[in-house]
């Protein structure tokens, strides 16, 4: 894609009266030399895998190989069915779906990295629950994935998307920004609002470290996906309501790069600090080693 | 640009749990296997940084072995790839490396199959995407995202124009190209990322050019 920054995407969208997803799809066609049917079809296949992962996480045993995690999506769904969830039913459903996909990932199931496996629950959580709630077509959702992809492309090429490079803000934070911007577009917001949603969302996860217990993509990754889906909905609502990211979204992306580059190695996916090195985190790691 | 297209952000389809430590590791293994050109009977893998710290929990060992078997990132056989490798007669060893590496998730993979030998250094840069930094001792870069031609040849005038001439005749557009040599008039390596598939016929024509020593095609879009 020839657009390197979100402000360029916003300007192109306004000038050409196009959505971010339209621009991304056209750029992908030009770049790859493939037909629109082929590229759209590939993304549609990916969306189906996301829906399958939501379903699998809600209906099958998702206990991970380590035995540490699994079943949380089903707990949240059952609670929501029997009680009034504090965050409201739509947020609770998005959270359950995000947990479901993350748990499928932790149990070595099939998922789509969005943008990574550690953050693979957030976009399906937001998308699949919103599709059910608003009655949107699969085609509408697949277009939304191109919008999310364009946002992620800008973040990845100006900052990073892996925990080892930039901490959890780079993975879960990026996924929240992508889901928030895409949700604005899916609901008919402007290109400008979609870009503001990204900045608003990213600001809320700046500084988040990557500190997986035992080095596994389980604790705290899975619950952070659940929280991430809810935050994405909140950021989309703020942007749709007209709240602006006063620090432009491209500048917020640069802050993520600055913060991630300054993060010590122990907080970048090495399991040498943070939650991984708490007394309980260390005990879990020792027990895992003994079992081998 | 480190990340090339929309599917490097939304994608790949993969078996969990980690895009860097599992999917990226599968791809690094596959590049090494395809550079070798056949199934290895021996593999020595050195892990650095976060790969070294957390490889067992993430199944990085399973993922690299899966790549050596030419499995793709979403292949359900990744779960038991080490057993598959052993039963195919492959001997795999893992060790922990120290020293400077280009990226926190880096692996050095050395493979043997009879007389044949291949060695790469690959980094897993996030979301299942990889960057190869070294092949058979040459400092050459490629991503594995495009059909890639890897050529070992003598360092003489006209070799590159011979290669690009064949590619232009066959309608293959070059997206990225990298050349490194060990010494003037010594051995050199040229790596070409193409926009379209490189056919066996094109490879054969290039193989027959003067000063050409060896050619390999790396294409991770092919399914085994």
Automatic annotation (TrEMBL), chain A:
Domain annotation Serine dehydratase-like alpha subunit: ranges: 17-276
Q: Which family does it belong to?
A: Belongs to the iron-sulfur dependent L-serine dehydratase family.
What's the protein name?
L-serine dehydratase
PANTHER family linked to this entry? L-SERINE DEHYDRATASE, L-SERINE DEHYDRATASE 1
In its UniProt record, which GO terms are filed under biological process? gluconeogenesis
Keyword list, A-Z: 4Fe-4S, Gluconeogenesis, Iron, Iron-sulfur, Lyase, Metal-binding
Pathway per the UniProt entry: Carbohydrate biosynthesis; gluconeogenesis
**Reaction(s) the record says it catalyses:** L-serine = pyruvate + NH4(+)
- From the Swiss-Prot or TrEMBL record, what is one GO molecular function term? 4 iron, 4 sulfur cluster binding
Family matches, as InterPro entries: Fe-S_L-Ser, MmgE/PrpD_sf, Ser_deHydtase-like_asu, Ser_deHydtase_asu
Any stretches that span the bilayer, and where are they?
none
**Keyword 4Fe-4S in annotation:** yes
Cofactor(s) required for function per UniProt = [4Fe-4S] cluster
Q: Which NCBIfam families match?
A: sda_alpha
Record keyword Lyase present: yes
N-terminal signal peptide:
none
Give the E.C. number(s).
4.3.1.17
From TrEMBL, chain B:
Give this protein's Gene Ontology molecular function annotations: 4 iron, 4 sulfur cluster binding; L-serine ammonia-lyase activity; metal ion binding
Q: Which residues form the ACT domain?
A: 148-224
Q: Which reaction does it catalyse?
A: L-serine = pyruvate + NH4(+)
Please, which domain of life does this record's source organism belong to? Bacteria
Specify one Pfam family. SDH_beta
According to UniProt, this protein's pathway is: Carbohydrate biosynthesis; gluconeogenesis
The question of whether Glycoprotein is a record keyword is answered with no
Q: Biological process GO annotation list? A: gluconeogenesis
Q: Which family does it belong to?
A: Belongs to the iron-sulfur dependent L-serine dehydratase family.
Output this protein's name.
L-serine deaminase
Q: Which organism is it from?
A: Paenibacillus algorifonticola
Q: What is the lineage of its organism?
A: Bacteria, Bacillati, Bacillota, Bacilli, Bacillales
């Amino acid at each position: 894609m020839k657009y390197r920054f979100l402000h360029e995407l916003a300007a192109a969208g306004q000038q050409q009266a196009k959505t971010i997803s339209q621009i991304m799809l056209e750029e992908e066609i030009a770049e790859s030399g493939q037909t629109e049917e082929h590229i759209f079809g590939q993304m549609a296949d990916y969306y189906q895998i996301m829906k399958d992962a939501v379903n699998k996480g809600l209906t099958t045993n998702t206990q991970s190989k380590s035995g540490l995690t699994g079943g949380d999506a089903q707990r949240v769904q059952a609670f929501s069915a029997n009680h009034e969830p504090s965050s409201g039913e739509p947020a609770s459903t998005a959270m359950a779906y995000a947990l479901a996909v993350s748990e499928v990932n932790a149990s070595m199931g099939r998922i789509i990295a969005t943008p990574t496996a550690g953050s693979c629950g957030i976009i399906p959580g937001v998308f699949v629950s919103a599709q059910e709630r608003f009655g949107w077509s699969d085609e509408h959702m697949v277009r939304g994935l191109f919008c999310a992809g364009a946002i992620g492309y800008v973040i990845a090429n100006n900052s990073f998307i892996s925990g080892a490079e930039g901490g959890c803000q780079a993975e879960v934070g990026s996924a929240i920004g992508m889901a928030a911007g895409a949700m604005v577009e899916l609901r008919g917001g402007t290109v400008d609002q979609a870009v503001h949603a990204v900045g608003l969302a990213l600001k809320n996860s700046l500084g988040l470290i990557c500190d997986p217990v035992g080095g596994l993509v389980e604790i705290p990754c899975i619950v952070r996906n659940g929280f991430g889906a809810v935050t994405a909905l909140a950021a989309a609502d703020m942007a749709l309501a007209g709240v602006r990211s006063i620090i432009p979204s491209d500048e917020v992306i640069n802050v993520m790069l600055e913060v991630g580059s300054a993060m010590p190695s122990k907080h970048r996916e090495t399991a040498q600090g943070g939650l991984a090195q708490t007394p309980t985190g260390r005990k879990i790691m020792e027990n895992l080693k003994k079992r081998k | 640009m480190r990340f090339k297209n929309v599917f490097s952000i939304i994608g790949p389809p993969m078996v969990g749990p980690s895009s860097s430590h599992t999917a990226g590791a599968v791809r690094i293994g596959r590049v090494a296997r395809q550079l070798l050109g056949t199934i290895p009977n021996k593999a020595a893998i050195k892990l650095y940084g976060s790969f070294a710290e957390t490889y067992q929990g993430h199944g990085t060992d399973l993922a690299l072995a899966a790549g050596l078997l030419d499995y793709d990132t979403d292949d359900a056989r990744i779960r038991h790839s080490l057993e598959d490798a052993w039963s195919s007669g492959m001997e795999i060893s893992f060790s922990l490396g120290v020293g400077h590496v280009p990226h926190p998730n880096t692996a050095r993979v050395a493979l043997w199959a009879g007389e044949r030998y291949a060695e790469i250094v690959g980094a897993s840069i996030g979301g299942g995407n990889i960057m190869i930094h070294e092949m058979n001792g040459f400092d050459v870069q490629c991503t594995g995202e495009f059909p890639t031609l890897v050529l070992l040849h003598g360092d003489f005038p006209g070799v590159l124009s011979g290669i690009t001439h064949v590619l232009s005749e066959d309608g293959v557009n070059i997206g990225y190209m990298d050349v490194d040599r060990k010494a003037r008039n010594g051995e050199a390596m040229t790596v070409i990322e193409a926009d379209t598939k490189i056919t066996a016929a094109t490879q054969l024509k290039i193989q027959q050019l003067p000063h050409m020593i060896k050619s390999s095609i790396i294409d991770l879009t092919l399914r085994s």
